[in-house]
Write a structure and sequence with these properties.
Elements (H helix, E strand, L loop, with lengths): L1 E8 L7 E3 L5 E5 L6 H13 L19 E9 L2 E10 L2 E6 L2 E3 L3 H4 L4 E4 L11 H15 L1 H23 L3 H41 L5 E6 L10 H9 L2 H7 L10 E6 L2 E2 H4 L2 H23 L4 E4 L8 H13 L3 E6 L10 E7 L2 E3 L1
Helix pairs in contact: 3-4, 4-5, 5-6, 5-9
Length: 359
């Protein structure tokens, strides 16, 4: 799978223009603040409906313009796909195959976009919320029902927290307790099932990239004992033991929103024991493992976005990563401020200047 054509209009500093990338490696050269990362962001936004930067919707729209527009065309197994997005201050409108859609689930079954930026290596040093959001999104791409289950759980959680905060009597809480337990068990079980499949692939990718054979382990940890996770009745029992404390704090103290994905090397937490370089390799290995899993399930290759790779990886690791992406036939977009830095590679080269892309 490869994006054949992109149309961009008023997205950040990117003017109205068409862009026709190559199937393999696409190198985007240009000085800083010219729009290279904005192009990667536009591609990511098309597939995921959100930015990989912390940005308000308004900031995605070129200054002085009412809206931004994005469109992509790709082919897969003789089928043509077209995706169109309009980004306005109040939100986005999406059309896939000419029909309006609300969720991007049908898009993500065909178009999987993964990104690595200088901020990505902080994944395991960030607050737990960052990891929960990252893996919730990854699981939802692999399992479309997960996104719906997550939305149901968040809705029940909001309602239950509102009742706790307002001091509602027990008989009003009881039906929400049961809904909470059913939804919590479903989400936490799916998280563990996904990690069980992902982890062996992740370990293999980590070893190949790092050249190290350190034992890598990962697990979901939270205030609920592991054996209770898959059983709503056990979750209800654990919840009952916290009733008075929940009322005091006015919020739900158990469940998926309290978990964290804890990663360890040789039995030591990564956030404390791993070097910055090791953390980069762990995150890149994770993304390659996600790509492997997507390819295995869909028989399609993902699209990879690599922002300012030269500042993050030395030449050896850059080559290892690009070789890996070549092996899985991933269309790749790579930005660099160094002219000719990737001239030795078989790639299509583009220049980005003041929001304009040229070959």
């Amino acid at each position: 799978m490869a994006i054949r054509a992109l149309t961009i209009r008023n997205f950040r500093n990117l003017e109205e223009q068409g862009f026709h990338p190559g199937e393999g490696l696409n190198v985007l050269e240009g000085d800083n603040a010219q729009g290279k990362t904005n192009l990667l962001e536009a591609i990511y936004y098309l597939a995921n409906g959100k930015s990989f930067r912390a940005a308000e919707t308004e900031s995605l729209i070129r200054f002085g313009e009412p809206q931004a527009e994005l469109a992509a065309h790709w082919e897969q197994e003789t089928l043509d796909y077209r995706l169109e997005l309009r980004v306005r201050p109040e939100g986005r409108e999406t059309k896939f195959q000419g029909k309006a859609i609300v969720r991007l689930t049908p898009v993500q079954a065909s178009l999987r976009v993964l990104v690595f930026t200088p901020d990505s290596s902080q994944l395991f040093r960030s607050p737990p919320l960052t990891r929960r959001r990252y893996f919730d999104h990854a699981i939802a791409v692999q399992s479309p029902t997960y996104g719906s289950a997550l939305n149901r759980y968040q809705r029940v959680l909001r309602q239950r927290n509102h009742l706790l905060e307002s001091g509602a009597p027990p008989h009003l809480l009881e039906p929400f307790d049961h809904q909470w337990a059913e939804s919590a068990a479903e989400l936490m079980s799916e998280r563990r099932a996904y990690l069980e499949i992902l982890l062996p692939i992740w370990k293999s990718r980590w070893r190949a990239l790092s050249g190290e054979d350190w034992a890598l382990s990962a697990s979901w940890q939270g205030p609920v004992e592991e054996e209770r996770v898959e059983h709503p009745e056990a979750l209800l029992e654990a919840l009952a033991g916290l009733r008075s404390e929940e009322r005091r704090q006015g919020r739900t103290l158990l469940g998926p929103q309290r978990e964290d994905l804890v990663l360890s090397l040789e039995g030591h937490p990564v956030r404390e024991a791993a070097s910055q370089g090791q953390q980069r390799m762990l995150v890149i290995g994770l993304k390659l493992a996600e790509a492997d899993l997507f390819r295995e399930n869909s028989r399609r290759s993902p699209v990879f976005l690599l922002d300012d790779l030269g500042s993050e990886l030395d030449e050896r690791h850059r080559r290892l990563l690009l070789d890996s992406l070549g092996e899985i036939e991933a269309q790749t977009f790579l930005t660099t401020a160094q002219h000719g830095a990737y001239a030795a590679l078989h790639a299509r080269n583009f220049r980005v200047v003041s929001g304009r892309i040229s070959a």
